[in-house]
Amino acid sequence: MMGYHSPTFCLLLCSHFISVLCSSPSPTHLCSPNQSAALFQFKTHFSINQTASKNCEYSNPKAKTTSWKKGTNCCLWDGVSCDNITGEVISLDLSCSCLSGTFPSNTTFFLLSSLQRLDLSFNDFGKSEISSNFGRFPSSTHLDLSYSWFSGLVPYEISYLSNLVSLYLSYRPTTDLIGFQAPGPILKLKKFAVNEIVRNLTKVREIYLDGIDMSSIDPNSLVNLSYSLTSLSLFGCHLRGKLPDNIFKLPNIEYLRLDENPKLTGQFPKSNWSSPLLDSLYLSFNYFSGKIPSSLTNPAKLSILTLNDNQLEGFLPDNQNAFPNLALLDLSNNLLSGTTPSWLYTIPRLLYLNLGNNQFNGHISEFQNRLLIKIILKDSSFRGPIPSSISKLVDLTSLDLSSNELNGTISLNMFSELQNLKKLDVFDLHSNFIEGDLPKLPPNIRFLSVSNNSLVGTLSGICNMKFIEILDLSHNDFSGIIPQCIGSFSQSLSSLNLKMNKLHGAITSIFAKGCALKNLNLNSNHLEGPLTPSITNCKELQVLDARNNMVNDSFPHWIEALSELQVLVLRSNRFHGPITAATSPRSLLKLRIVDLSYNNLFVPLPTDYIKNFKRMINIIDDGKAVKGFEIELVKILTIFTSIDLSCNNFEGQIPRDIGELSSLRGLNLSHNNLVGHIPSSLRNMTRLEWLDLSSNKLSGQIPTGLLDLTFLSSFNVSCNQLVGPIPKGKQFNTFENGSYQGNVGLCGVPLSRGCNNNVLGQPPPAPWMNSHEDDGSKLEFGWKVVVIGYGFGFIFGAAMGCGCLRTGVGV
Ligand SMILES: *[C@@H]1O[C@H](CO)[C@@H](O)[C@H](O)[C@H]1NC(C)=O
Ligand SMILES: *[C@@H]1O[C@H](CO)[C@@H](O)[C@H](O)[C@H]1NC(C)=O
Ligand SMILES: *[C@@H]1O[C@H](CO)[C@@H](O)[C@H](O)[C@H]1NC(C)=O
Ligand SMILES: *[C@@H]1O[C@H](CO)[C@@H](O)[C@H](O)[C@H]1NC(C)=O
Ligand SMILES: *[C@@H]1O[C@H](CO)[C@@H](O)[C@H](O)[C@H]1NC(C)=O
Ligand SMILES: *[C@@H]1O[C@H](CO)[C@@H](O)[C@H](O)[C@H]1NC(C)=O
Ligand SMILES: *[C@@H]1O[C@H](CO)[C@@H](O)[C@H](O)[C@H]1NC(C)=O
Ligand SMILES: *[C@@H]1O[C@H](CO)[C@@H](O)[C@H](O)[C@H]1NC(C)=O
Ligand SMILES: *[C@@H]1O[C@H](CO)[C@@H](O)[C@H](O)[C@H]1NC(C)=O
Ligand SMILES: *[C@@H]1O[C@H](CO)[C@@H](O)[C@H](O)[C@H]1NC(C)=O
Ligand SMILES: *[C@@H]1O[C@H](CO)[C@@H](O)[C@H](O)[C@H]1NC(C)=O
Ligand SMILES: *[C@@H]1O[C@H](CO)[C@@H](O)[C@H](O)[C@H]1NC(C)=O
Questions:
Q1: pTM for this structure?
Q2: Ligand 10 pocket list (CB less than 6 A)
């Protein structure tokens, strides 16, 4: 600093010059008035809006232009730098500057002809086009317009910037920015522009075009990209066709990102594979095929390699050049096969390994490296024992070995060592052939699934797990009682799955205050005795499934206290006695599925009972269930969108209430003894796709309101006593003769019998129609059971009917 080597000296001797001499590192140049004016005019095009820079990655948003004042030296303005000699503006950094507004296609800004660095990233230019005038900065070495909501074609004039070293036009973030809403392809690069860029930008070192639509580009046009390139990022660019393998041979490339171009094909070159400088190679979610050549393991610096979600096949190369620096290796979701080579287990710096969903077989070798954080080897054909070295991986946070053919036992040793683990979020061994007892488990596991193995013995080993959130022990041969500890050892347990074991004994009063369970699955064990009301301590319980046990109890009315309960399945137990309606109209508001079938319960049917359960009737198809159980629930919900009560002896009328089953897709009431009119309320079942009322004794006309059922594709009212004209129009024009035959009084298309006034008259009322729809005839009673059954998931037909095949409404 101007000869003052010691700050102390400066402070002592020139304190009153300090602002002049010590705070200005360089001599200040006045910027020329016309440059100042150009910048100031530029500023006025935009308003300042924090939202415009909400996705800033590397710095905090700062409205730099607010400090720009007319008549002051623009070289001192925030974000502006001038040339030391000429005073011309050479650098403008307005990234993350909260600029919001349309970017003008022509403005004095483009006259800043000495500009070398221009950074406008992370603003919101409201889908403005990128002006061709951006090609008018001949000295430009750095251009960054990324994440600033430009749209349209990238102008080929960018290729005029032949001194460019960095070109950043990405708008799709490669990392998951919280709250970033990736737009669809809004920027597009055409062939001509790409060709010109490749040809003219001979000095370019960094090109980032993530998210730009390059679907019309022949990847071969990238073949002559500058040898100076160190970074090329074309993530999610809709590239299609074959990638020239020269890309892998660029001599200086360090960062190569071509992932998420699902129509991009290619194979790896067998030799001269990429520069020795290559540090990161992302090729996941493409359509690469063929084998992984042994030369791939050459780049000594490689630290990230993602080849997942391609069509790669064959064995992994079995060569000695391991990866000294590799930290992340993802080969999942390919067609790779064979045994895994030994180098895979010795990569010294590996933190993340994912080989899931391939066809690997053979044993999993022992891991030599102790740094591993994540190991995913699921969905292959690995055999043999669980490698004992995992107990040495103290930083491990997830281990997924599920869906293999691993056998052997979970050794006590493995878990006693795992006590050292800091935390283990995913420990997944489901669907293997693991045998033996469950040893005492360490406290620091949050997720444990050993489902679908051959484990035996009692569950006492789980009592330690203070932080467990999801515990899946289903589909094993565990026996003994449900340990008393289970209700109290973890306040974090949200899902407990004990389905399909051999647990027996009574479910004692185990659930303590503060129980956090959302899902409790006791399905298919040998549990007996009453169901413990201590379950009401689990205030957040959403799913309670105790089906297929021997629980002997009266109807658990206390479930009314479980206000979050959505699914209650007590089917096939020994519940007995009456079910009465909920006492409080506000309880069980979220209940959607109840299956109480195969018990000895009965429903006394108070008059307004149906109304209490109306809320169950309109099943919301897209409802989300407890995490991890969605699929099972969706299955159930799908079944619940149709009712088949055909081939029973239901009598009476179809009640108006049926219209309230508005989520129903299919209704089959055929082959019963139903009488009366087809209720016009059917028009409210707006999702109905098939409706079969055939072979009953229905009378009256077909309500024209059924024309509203726009999804109806199958309709059958044959073999009834219907009269009058068949509704005309819409989907009714598609139904054929067979839908209507066997009704002497029907007329009109498609029947050959035309309509005339004689048959259009009201039919004479039948003797049994004197009663009002609602006055509780036999038939009405029958229907109420149907509606409740629908809500309750009763299986109809098991005990009644004419012996024809039925799908039922249950699960
Ligand atoms: C301007 O001056 C500063 C300080 O003397 C120096 O570090 C910088 O390199 C100079 N810039 C140019 C473009 O000459
Ligand atoms: C800032 O931008 C957001 C999003 O475009 C908009 O909703 C909001 O009204 C703007 N705020 C101001 C003060 O203009
Ligand atoms: C941009 O404006 C300048 C004057 O401000 C004018 O000379 C030039 O022709 C304009 N260019 C375009 C492409 O409109
Ligand atoms: C600014 O004015 C000078 C002379 O006054 C001229 O040479 C230069 O081209 C002008 N620059 C701009 C950006 O208009
Ligand atoms: C390359 O850029 C220069 C300007 O720097 C321009 O004159 C020339 O037309 C460009 N060439 C191509 C092939 O785009
Ligand atoms: C690449 O450069 C070579 C040599 O200059 C040329 O023959 C070839 O046509 C170029 N390829 C493409 C696709 O531009
Ligand atoms: C690999 O590179 C070397 C040296 O650059 C060269 O001699 C050799 O021909 C190249 N091999 C292939 C197959 O391209
Ligand atoms: C595991 O399976 C292999 C056959 O794949 C068998 O030879 C071995 O004995 C089994 N080990 C145990 C402990 O069951
Ligand atoms: C159990 O694992 C076998 C393969 O080992 C698999 O086929 C089956 O679907 C799995 N069953 C369940 C319920 O996950
Ligand atoms: C249910 O338990 C009662 C006694 O609590 C007993 O009398 C009855 O037989 C049991 N029912 C069944 C089906 O086991
Ligand atoms: C209704 O049920 C009957 C008897 O089970 C069956 O024959 C008919 O195909 C079913 N109708 C529809 C539309 O599925
Ligand atoms: C159809 O539903 C609406 C609204 O729920 C109701 O007002 C109307 O009465 C229903 N129509 C029939 C015919 O039941």
A1: 0.72
A2: 552, 574
Q: How much distance in Å is there from the Cα of 161 to the middle of ligand 4? A: 21
Residue among 531, 550, 574, 575 whose CB has most ligand 10 atoms within 8 A, to mutate:
574
Distance, CA of 607 to CA of 610 (rounded, Å): 7
**What CA–CA distance (Å, rounded) separates 162 from 515?**
67
pLDDT classification of 307: cutoffs 50, 70, 90? very high
Predicted confidence at residue 276, as pLDDT, reads 80
In degrees, to the nearest 5, what angle opens at C-alpha 414 toward C-alphas 410 and 418? Answer: 130
- Do 579 and 596 form a contact (C-beta atoms < 8 A)? yes
Measured CA to CA, the distance from residue 736 to residue 348 in angstroms comes to: 72
- For 120-205, strand residue ranges (E) read 128-129, 142-144, 150-153, 166-168, 187-188
Q: Checking DSSP bridges between strand 721-725 and strand 745-747, what pairing results, if any?
A: parallel
Nearby residues of 631 by Cβ (< 8 Å), 6 or more positions away? none
Rg of the chain, C-alpha, whole Å: 36
pLDDT tens digits, 126-154:
999 999 999 999 899 999 999 999 999 99
Nearest atom of ligand 10 to the alpha carbon of 553: 1
Ligand closest to Cα of 404 equals 9
CATH 1.20.200.10, applies to 49-222: no
| 349/371 Cα distance (integer angstroms) | 7
Q: Which atom of ligand 4 is nearest to the CA of 113?
A: 13
Distance CA 252, CA 652 (A): 84
Q: How far is the C-alpha of 747 from the C-alpha of 758, rounded, in Å?
A: 11
For the stretch 61-113, pLDDT in tens is 999 999 999 888 899 999 999 998 888 999 999 999 999 999 999 888 898 98
| Ligand 6 atom closest to Cα of residue 218 | 13
- Structure-token pair, residue 61: 């948003």
Q: Which run of H or of E encompasses 673?
A: strand 673-676
| 773-780, long-range: CB < 8 A, 24+ apart | 773/653, 773/655, 773/656, 773/676, 774/655, 777/652, 777/653, 778/651, 778/652, 779/650, 779/651, 779/652, 779/653, 779/674, 779/675, 779/676, 780/652, 780/653, 780/655
